[in-house]
Amino acid sequence: MSFLRAWLVAAVVGGVSIATSLPLVLLPQPAAAAAAAAQAADTIVVEGNRRVEAETVRSYFKAGPNGQFDQVALDDGLKALIETGLFQDVKVNRAGGHVVVSVVENAVIGRVAFEGNKKIKDEQLTAEVQSKPRGTFSRAMVQSDTLRIAEIYRRSGRYDVRVTPEIIEQPNNRVDLVFTVEEGVKTGVKSVEFIGNSAFSAYRLRDVIKTHESNLLSFLSSGDIYDPDRVEADRDLIRRFYLKNGFADAQVVAALTEYDPDKKGFLVSFKIEEGQQYRVGAVDFRSSIANFDASSLRGFSRVNVGSLYNVESVEKSTEEMQIEASRRGYAFAVVRPSGDRNFESHTVSVVFNIDEGPRTYIERINLRGNTRTRDYVIRREFDISEGDAYNRALVDRAERRLKNLDYFKSVKITTEPGSSSDRVILIVDMEEKSTGDFSVSGGYSTTDGALAEVSVSERNLFGKGLYAKASVTYGQYARGVSLSFVEPYLLDYRIALGLDTYWRESLSNSYTSYSVTTLGFSPRLGFALREDLSLQLRYSLYQQTITLPSAYNNCNNNAANTSLAFNPTPAYIQSVLGGVDPTNSTSSGYYGYGCYADGESSLPIRKELANGPTLTSAVGYTLTYNTLDNTKNPNDGLLIDFKQDFAGVGGDVTYLKTALDTKYYTPLVSEIISVIHLQGGVLNKIGNNDLRMLDHFQMGPNLVRGFASNGIGPRDITYASFGATGDALGGTKYWGASTELQMPFWFLPKEVGLKGAVYADAGSLWGYQGPTSWAATGEVNTKACPTCGLQYDDSSVVRSSVGVGLIWASPFGPLRFDYAVPLTKGKYDIVQQFRFGGGTSF
After folding, report:
1. Percent of the chain having pLDDT more than 90?
2. Residue 136: DSSP 8-state
3. CA neighbor of 791 nearest in space, from 772, 777, 769
4. Among 187, 349, 563, 789, which is least packed by CB within 10 angstroms?
């Protein structure tokens, strides 16, 4: 009993320590081991790191809810560390109750260099590769960069390129990276063939696509370089061409490309299924919208019964109809064209269906990719904005306008769902491109001689859509400086404001005895009335000054002056002109008639010189109608320019000048293009002021080929009896008509760009109304020679010619050679049968 009491007393006194120690004895052994392991796993030991902090490494490992790092957590952390690209090797182990992460850091790149690259500069390659100096070295990234460099060369037409990366180790875990490039030769397109085409020749189809065959001048362009994206785009160009010409079922089934190792180039073949050619059998308009008369849109249709079925005409008609319906208050109207083919008659009946579309509104217009161009420059090309009804026709028009700005490499407008089912978001994706140009141009013509021009221009100045250009011209007979500026959206309206300032000097040459210096400026306003109709209003203020070489204004018969066109000897003057020695002008027998015989300029020129500089202030306009399919090399369409200028809003001269110029292109058989050119003009005198000779129309090969510059029309014949004619005086009326056939040389590759032409021209210039007399000191003694005022020929005879031409769309710019033979001409007209002109920018 005493023992039991003693034990209980001890238990009560020391109960705390007994209770505390009991769990250590009574807990199961496995649970105790797990708890110990969990406590130890809270510590992650990092080994091998030099630049990366240990805490950064630990942050990639996430413990479970119970604080443990199970195998899944360790595997996830391992993968995350490897994906950072910071480490060459990563290992995770358990050691001594800890998680040990051993890393081998990737080296740091000291420099990135390129060797062997000549065709592509270091700067371009540096911008493309991902490996950068002071960045982390990664073998996977180097491999990717190697493939990227090779792809850049392939895009430039060099498929034989080889790129070898070289890693040079440096102290302190640093490396230098060198890409050695073997560029190889340019891989061009050796042939472009078409399979299945019968309606159009291969020669014609080659003119449609952008891919061209290699030739001797290919080094000046890039069209012969094989580009798979370009070939794919050519498929769509061919298909669109067929659809424009009535082949509604046409398809380009495939574009086959094959590399020929023998020719060291690609062979490209387009497989075409043409189908039948259709004409428009009927055009109808139907509306499912109440109170909407579908036939009222007939005036907006460009599709005519009997014409070739043209998909572009259908698309443009659809767009204009849908926009017109929107203007009338039917914001959700949708125009859907449909066609019913008649396979027997080869016709398509076109029906324009006007239906009520879904009531969808534009929630936002998001712009992406315009790093330089201001947002408002892009948004002003839209005729719709946030909150307006969604109209696909207006969206397509905005996309086309943005592309036509030529500020971007690509423009694509897509839609995304908005915050509700009746809302859409417009996404405008763009890729900027360079809009600045530096041009050095050169040319030569038989009229103007050699000519050079240096110009700097910017189409998107400050990213605000402004246009500016400065140019300097210097040549044998022409010099000048000009500055131009255009604001395409004046006060946020679709009105273009332009301003030109210029200084020009036309020097005396074989066709004119005088030089003219012009200094002026001209503001103008441009309006696009329709896509094919535009109006320009302008004001011109300029000062003109005439200068003459002293030999043409000295009124001195000097036998020693052999540089003049006609230089009579003193004996000739005395016997024929009835005078004494002209070296003694005070002699009573000297009448001064020899002034006209030694090469003097015409009376109107000398009068203009004596009057001094003349200021002209004029307002005018130009109305232009243009449906050409291509402004540089048209094959079809009509171009009409009607101009009028009224001088007399201040200044020293008054007149009304009117001119009309029309060109019509239409394709004939076998790629032959017919060109009809009609032109005419009238200069009207206003008030009592005489017309200046400089304000008259001056014509030559621009009216009838085969004649010299200023070689047609009224001419000074005051000293024609001495075997020479004077300056061209110009006329107040002219007309001209020309017909020309342009044809390719089928035996030459299309890429050479040569065409031949045969033509016939006719026209006339007459009606001189300038000064004919002038009482001034040193002029003719009218007592001795009462008819010695200005004598001129002003016959309205029709001038005509026939000729041949050679047109070359060369890499040096457009060149043209003409040889024309006049059939009829005026008595004093000047003939120039051969003419050449052309130039380039590079």
Report:
1. 37
2. B
3. 772
4. 563
